[in-house]
Amino acid sequence: MLINDFAELTGVSARALRHYEDRGLLIPTRTSSGYRDYSEADAVRVAQIRTMIAAGLNTATIRTYLDCARTGDHGTSLEMCPALRAELDALAARLEAKQAELHETRRRLSGLACGA
Predict the structure, then answer these.
(1) Whether 99 and 85 share a structural domain
(2) What CA dihedral angle connects 76, 13, 62 and 50, to 10 degrees?
(3) Most CB within 10 Å of its CB: which of 5, 7, 71, 104?
(4) Where is the HTH merR-type domain (predicted)?
Protein backbone atom coordinates (compact mmCIF):
# COMPACT_ATOMS: atom_id res chain seq x y z
CA MET A 1 0.00 0.00 0.00
CA LEU A 2 1.38 3.40 -0.95
CA ILE A 3 1.87 6.22 1.54
CA ASN A 4 -1.30 8.26 0.86
CA ASP A 5 -3.54 5.21 1.11
CA PHE A 6 -1.68 4.04 4.20
CA ALA A 7 -1.99 7.49 5.79
CA GLU A 8 -5.75 7.39 5.26
CA LEU A 9 -5.99 3.84 6.64
CA THR A 10 -4.02 4.63 9.80
CA GLY A 11 -5.31 8.15 10.40
CA VAL A 12 -1.75 9.48 10.38
CA SER A 13 -0.55 12.09 7.91
CA ALA A 14 1.98 11.17 5.23
CA ARG A 15 4.28 13.73 6.85
CA ALA A 16 4.05 11.91 10.21
CA LEU A 17 4.78 8.58 8.49
CA ARG A 18 7.90 10.06 6.91
CA HIS A 19 8.90 11.44 10.34
CA TYR A 20 8.50 7.99 11.91
CA GLU A 21 10.67 6.58 9.13
CA ASP A 22 13.31 9.31 9.60
CA ARG A 23 13.43 8.43 13.32
CA GLY A 24 13.85 4.71 12.59
CA LEU A 25 10.46 3.79 14.03
CA LEU A 26 8.90 2.57 10.81
CA ILE A 27 10.74 0.89 7.95
CA PRO A 28 8.45 0.21 5.00
CA THR A 29 9.63 -1.82 2.06
CA ARG A 30 10.21 -0.06 -1.25
CA THR A 31 8.79 -0.86 -4.66
CA SER A 32 11.11 -1.31 -7.61
CA SER A 33 10.45 2.33 -8.48
CA GLY A 34 11.39 3.49 -4.96
CA TYR A 35 7.93 4.17 -3.54
CA ARG A 36 7.20 3.23 0.06
CA ASP A 37 5.09 0.08 0.30
CA TYR A 38 3.34 -0.43 3.64
CA SER A 39 2.04 -3.72 5.00
CA GLU A 40 -0.53 -4.77 7.58
CA ALA A 41 2.32 -5.19 10.10
CA ASP A 42 3.25 -1.54 9.48
CA ALA A 43 -0.31 -0.52 10.43
CA VAL A 44 0.10 -2.32 13.77
CA ARG A 45 3.45 -0.61 14.26
CA VAL A 46 1.91 2.82 13.59
CA ALA A 47 -0.81 2.12 16.17
CA GLN A 48 1.88 1.20 18.70
CA ILE A 49 3.86 4.36 17.93
CA ARG A 50 0.76 6.54 18.27
CA THR A 51 -0.14 4.93 21.60
CA MET A 52 3.36 5.51 22.95
CA ILE A 53 3.41 9.13 21.75
CA ALA A 54 -0.01 9.71 23.34
CA ALA A 55 1.42 8.37 26.61
CA GLY A 56 4.08 11.09 26.52
CA LEU A 57 7.09 9.17 25.21
CA ASN A 58 9.43 10.90 22.77
CA THR A 59 10.62 9.25 19.57
CA ALA A 60 14.06 8.41 20.98
CA THR A 61 12.49 6.51 23.87
CA ILE A 62 9.99 4.87 21.53
CA ARG A 63 12.81 3.72 19.25
CA THR A 64 14.57 2.15 22.24
CA TYR A 65 11.50 0.29 23.51
CA LEU A 66 9.30 -0.23 20.45
CA ASP A 67 10.17 -3.91 20.33
CA CYS A 68 8.61 -4.21 23.81
CA ALA A 69 5.21 -3.09 22.43
CA ARG A 70 2.51 -5.71 22.10
CA THR A 71 -0.89 -5.26 20.50
CA GLY A 72 -3.77 -7.47 21.47
CA ASP A 73 -7.50 -7.47 22.12
CA HIS A 74 -7.10 -4.73 24.73
CA GLY A 75 -4.92 -2.38 22.67
CA THR A 76 -1.21 -1.72 22.95
CA SER A 77 0.82 -2.56 26.02
CA LEU A 78 4.52 -2.69 26.84
CA GLU A 79 6.45 -5.61 28.26
CA MET A 80 8.25 -4.12 31.23
CA CYS A 81 11.97 -4.41 31.71
CA PRO A 82 13.92 -2.50 34.39
CA ALA A 83 15.18 0.18 32.00
CA LEU A 84 11.73 0.84 30.56
CA ARG A 85 10.19 0.91 34.04
CA ALA A 86 12.79 3.54 35.02
CA GLU A 87 11.96 5.64 31.93
CA LEU A 88 8.24 5.50 32.66
CA ASP A 89 8.77 6.30 36.34
CA ALA A 90 10.94 9.30 35.40
CA LEU A 91 8.27 10.55 33.00
CA ALA A 92 5.60 10.17 35.70
CA ALA A 93 7.79 12.09 38.16
CA ARG A 94 8.27 14.94 35.66
CA LEU A 95 4.51 15.08 35.09
CA GLU A 96 3.81 15.16 38.82
CA ALA A 97 6.34 17.97 39.31
CA LYS A 98 4.77 19.96 36.47
CA GLN A 99 1.32 19.37 37.93
CA ALA A 100 2.49 20.66 41.34
CA GLU A 101 4.02 23.71 39.66
CA LEU A 102 0.76 24.44 37.83
CA HIS A 103 -1.22 24.01 41.05
CA GLU A 104 1.04 26.53 42.79
CA THR A 105 0.71 28.97 39.90
CA ARG A 106 -3.08 28.62 40.03
CA ARG A 107 -3.01 29.25 43.81
CA ARG A 108 -0.96 32.44 43.32
CA LEU A 109 -3.25 33.62 40.52
CA SER A 110 -6.27 33.06 42.73
CA GLY A 111 -4.56 35.12 45.46
CA LEU A 112 -4.13 38.01 43.03
CA ALA A 113 -7.77 37.89 41.99
CA CYS A 114 -8.97 37.96 45.59
CA GLY A 115 -6.68 40.82 46.55
CA ALA A 116 -4.79 38.64 49.05
Answers:
(1) yes
(2) -20
(3) 7
(4) 1-68
Query: pLDDT of 57-116, one tens digit each?
Result: 899 999 998 888 888 877 777 787 788 888 889 989 999 999 999 999 999 999 888 765
Strand spans (E) along the chain: 29-30, 36-37, 69-72, 75-78
Q: What is the pTM of this model?
A: 0.75
Which residues on adjacent β-strands are paired with residue 70? 77
Q: How many domains does the chain have?
A: 2
Pick from 16, 15, 36: which is nearest to 27 by CA? 36
Tell whether 33 and 90 lie within a shared domain. Answer: no
